[in-house]
Specification:
It is built from eleven helices and two strands. By secondary structure, the protein is mostly helical. It has two domains: 146 residues, no CATH class; 129 residues, no CATH class. It has a two-stranded antiparallel sheet. Helix 4 packs antiparallel against helix 6 and helix 9 packs antiparallel against helix 11. This is Ion transport 2 domain protein. It comes from Streptomyces caeruleatus.
Amino acid sequence: MEWLVSLFGAGLVMVSLRDLFHTLWHPTRHGGLSRLVMTALWRLARRFRGRRRVVGLVGPLAMVTVVGMWAGTVVIGWAVVYWPHMPESFAFSPGSEAAQEPALLDSLYLSLVTVATLGLGDIAPGEGWLRLISPLEALVGFALLTATVSWVLEIYPALTRRRVLAIRLALLRDADPTPGQLDSTAGALLLDSLATEVVRVRIDFTQYAEAYYFHDGDDNSSLAAIVGYAAVLAEHGQAASLAEVRLAGDLLAGALKDLSTILDQRFLHTGGSPAEVFAEYATDHGRGVTQP
């Protein structure tokens, strides 16, 4: 029975590590538990009044919640591993009153100290197999800290790329280039560069799905509000007389369609056309679609 309890604790640890791996390092970035937490917080925030202010906190709060979930699951899992063998399989420092505490409390304390790599030493594993897995928990704690820092450093460049594209589209909308101005070599280069940026954002939504749950604010940095204007530019390009402009227009239209497919498959689930998906994207982020 003791070994079954320890195996259950090991299973909790593996569930947490699997979710961490799939969230941060798996090519498809399909974290199970983390994705559920982020989606639940996003939907909950949409129900509040003053929604934009609340939604703006969802992304950072969701990341903190997910990291706390990982850490808590690891700590509890390892405590359950220790629990059936406490205190007889552990050595206590002279004068320590830890052995007089409930076994579960001592197990949680040891797990917290170990995963935080504090190494206080007042409780130490005595049996051989426990002496091997206890340092392993410290390594997992260090990996968790490193993964958290890496996650933050990865997500904010993705948000920057998305907001740069939004601001660029807003500037183009304000400049209001005519179809004749786009029907030129410069217009072809412009549409081609926009297609490249749209593809980058599409990849970001694939590899950093949690970026979707970050609100872009109420100014021109909101891609949800302005992405429809890119479709207007693509249409102008496709109707141009120069072949190179038509090609660039086709590239931009294809990139936008691909982006809408990713948004719909992973977040919105409308099953509609790209225009309908982008309209739902704007609504989901509390923004109306910007008209050209």
